[in-house]
UniProtKB/TrEMBL annotation:
Organism: Pelotomaculum propionicicum
GO molecular function: demethylrebeccamycin--D-glucose O-methyltransferase activity
Keywords from the UniProt entry: Methyltransferase, Transferase
Name of the protein in its database record: Demethylrebeccamycin-D-glucose O-methyltransferase
GO biological process, one term: methylation
Length: 239
C-alpha cells in the first residue's frame, strides 16, 4: 500500500476537526477580507504569485486552503481554470459569491482539505497554498506535500506561503511577543488575538522542517524568501 491507495481508518487524524481559528464560523468568514485588508493587498499579492509561477492563460491551478478567494479571483481572470479547495464551507461560500459577482465561470469549488481533496481533472500547472498549511500537524504536512506533488504535471510549480519560523528555538518567547505586538500595531487587537490563537493552537513549524519535507516529497525549491514577518514563501518545482 502507498499514500495513494491506503484508505484512512476512522481513528486517524481528521483534518475537519478545527485547530485554532474557527473558519466554519460564518461571522469570521464574513469579516475575513476586511480584517486581512489591514495588512495585505490581495490583488498585488496575487500578481506577485502569478509572476513567480509564470502563470499563462491556458494554465490550470489548484488553490488549497483558498479561503474567501484572495488568490482564486485574480487568478481566474488570468488563467483557464482554478480549483478552489477549502475545508470550510463558510469561507468557500464567500469565494463563490465573489466569483459570481466578478462574472467568473472558471472557478470550481470543493469543500475538502489537503488530505481529502481528490483531484479528478488532469494534473495541473500550479498549486498555490497561502496561510493554510499550518492547520496540519507536521506529520500530515508531509503527507499533504506528497499529495500536492501527485496533482502537479511534471514541470508544474508549487507556491507555498505560510507562517514558518526561522529564529533560533531558544528565542521563541521574545519572537512570539514581537510577533503579537507587531500585529497589534499593524492590524489591530482582533488580529493580535488571532496571532495568539495561532501560536497556542495551530501548527507552524521551522523552515528546516519544511525544507526537508519538500525535498522528501520530490520537490526542487527554486525560491525561498521572506516577504512578511514570521512567514516564508517558497516556489518549488515537480521535476
Ligand atoms: C488564514 S486562512 C487563508 C485563506 C486564503 N488562502 C488567504 O490567502 O486568504 C486559512 C484557510 O485554511 C483553511 N483550512 C484549514 N484547514 C484546512 C485543511 N486541512 N485543508 C484545507 N484548508 C484548510 C481554512 O478553512 C481557511 O480558509
Amino acid at each position: 500500500m502507498n499514500h495513494k491507495t491506503a484508505a484512512a481508518p476512522s481513528w486517524q487524524y481528521d483534518e475537519r476537526v478545527k485547530a485554532g481559528v474557527d473558519y466554519e464560523d460564518a461571522a469570521i468568514a464574513a469579516e475575513y477580507d476586511s480584517r486581512h485588508a489591514k495588512f495585505r493587498d490581495f490583488e498585488k499579492d496575487a500578481r506577485v504569485v502569478m509572476q513567480l509561477l509564470d502563470l499563462q492563460p491556458e494554465h490550470t491551478v489548484i488553490d488549497l486552503g483558498c479561503g474567501t478567494g484572495a488568490f482564486v479571483i485574480p487568478a481566474a481572470r488570468s488563467c483557464r481554470k482554478v480549483y478552489a479547495v477549502d475545508i470550510s464551507q463558510a469561507m468557500l461560500d464567500r469565494c463563490t459569491e465573489k466569483a459570481r459577482a466578478a462574472g467568473l465561470k472558471n472557478v470550481e469549488t470543493h469543500c475538502a482539505g489537503f488530505l481529502s481533496y481528490e483531484h479528478k481533472g488532469d494534473p495541473v500547472d500550479a498549486i498555490v497554498s497561502v496561510a493554510a498549511l499550518h492547520h496540519l500537524p507536521d506529520f500530515w504536512k508531509a503527507v499533504a506535500f506528497k499529495r500536492m506533488y501527485d496533482m502537479l504535471k511534471p514541470g508544474g510549480k508549487l507556491y507555498l506561503f505560510d507562517v514558518i519560523f526561522t529564529f533560533p528555538v531558544e528565542s521563541y518567547q521574545i519572537e512570539f511577543n514581537c510577533w503579537v505586538n507587531g500585529m497589534a500595531e499593524k492590524a489591530g487587537q482582533a488580529m493580535a488575538q488571532e496571532t495568539i490563537v495561532h501560536i497556542r493552537d495551530e501548527y507552524s513549524t521551522f523552515d528546516w522542517v519544511i525544507d526537508g519535507m519538500l525535498e522528501r516529497a520530490g520537490f526542487k525549491t527554486d525560491l525561498k524568501r521572506s516577504d512578511f514577518p514570521y512567514s516564508l514563501s517558497y516556489v518549488c518545482v515537480r521535476p
